[in-house]
Sequence to fold (533 residues):
Amino acid sequence: MKKYPGIAFKISIFLTVLFSIYLFNIRISTGGDDAGYIESAKLFLDGIRYPSYHGAFYSIFLSFFIWIFGINLSILKLTSLLFITGHIIFFYYAFKNQIRDIILIPVLLFTCVNSEILYYASQTYTEAMYMFMQSLLFFLIIKKYEFDDSYKLVKNHWAVVLAVGFILFGMSLTRNIGVITLLSLLVYLILQKKYYLSGYTLLSFLFFKLSFGLYKSLVWGLEKSDISGAVSKILYADFYNPTAGNEDLSGILIRVLENIQLYFSKYFLEVLGFGSLEGSGFIALLICVLFIVGFVIAYKKEPVMKFTAIYLILSLGGLFIAIQSKIGQMRLIVVYVPLMLLLFLWTIITAKKSHKLMSLINYAAVFVIVIFTMINLSNSIKESRENKSILLSNINGNMYSGYSQDWINYLKLSKYAAENIPEGSMIACRKPSMSFIYGNGRNFYGIYRSDQPDSLTKRLVDNNVDYLLVASLRSNPDKKTDQVITTIHRYGYYLNNKYPGIFELVYQVGANDDEPARLYKINWDKIKIISNE
Fold:
């Protein structure tokens, strides 16, 4: 019987690589965040800007590959495939021989065929790297961190303590919420009465944190921590509008309750393949109960699952405090789903023993995971078939295949503008990171929202913007209508009315009735002439 888990593990690796390849997406997502990580990596590599906005560690990692291969999307995305595969490997070895195979293997097989998780195997988002570091941390804590607690322990175990400190530092620099991982581990070690080890772990983390802070200060002139800005924004009543003031205690509590309901009844179920039951208080309550029961049972019986429960409860708790429900995203919870399933399945099976319930619960819980696995396998096969022609077209050199016409026109014009507009002139657009990628690494200036026109005009002048890229990006991405994103259109309309003739059409991609993208030269002299009159 001992050979079967090993066979299941090998099958899971094979399926992970197989479906990651069939679902591989060479394109940049229209959300633009993945392009932002690449742009930040290039700017970091060129010594222009430190990637302080988000995912600094990931952008720094990508910069190494950009240094060697240039902005090669296939190479950059392949690193994510390796991270997801590494996640599966360390996840298995972390929990192997620690929990029963009837719990570990179904969760492992579910993960390796889940299209929502495998999506990140070909994206330049932080999720794949974070899941890899997360499973590597669990492997080290479970398999390498169990030694006698003594002030002398660092003498023989300094390497693993430094490794854990580095991973904790990397996770905190990859996702702001990653700093909670340090807190989770310290709480676990203190509960295990490993006081010296907790202290050495904290010192190891601080060694990397302070060393990196010194580097930032000396090289980039930055004094603030990477999470300081994010922490201050947690209290905003409106993330995108600081003038709305800060949230009070009751507002934070409401935010947490809304997020529990949103993430557990919608996003968690969607990752499982069950479909959304958004707004279901029962589902949210059930999952909360599983967390509480799991922690109580693990606290008494199983250190491995105790750490798992502490990590999940604190990480998700921190997430629900930090994130406003109206900007919720599945990607924020997807990294925790395999661990959540593992904890829940372990809790149900272990609770059955504790309360002498019918053994049928055992099989029913596993059967549910198997059903979810089959649903996700079916979804992955279907999506693989749909992706085949697009992937082959991308491989053969058509990097626009798979985009809707509005995006094709926008990206083609970005490429034209990058190649034909003089380097000294900046080009303003709605999605500068995507224009950066398809414009062969040329920097564009982003206009993200409709500010007061005169103040926007001043910013454009101050940043040497001489051209405006106006696209017809759909308000509803799934349907072609007359409704488009008008952020830049409104500004152009105002400026053209105030200063007639200020815009001069330079180039257009796409027919007038086919979601065109237009490049305009801004004749700033018109403002001076009209002002003088």
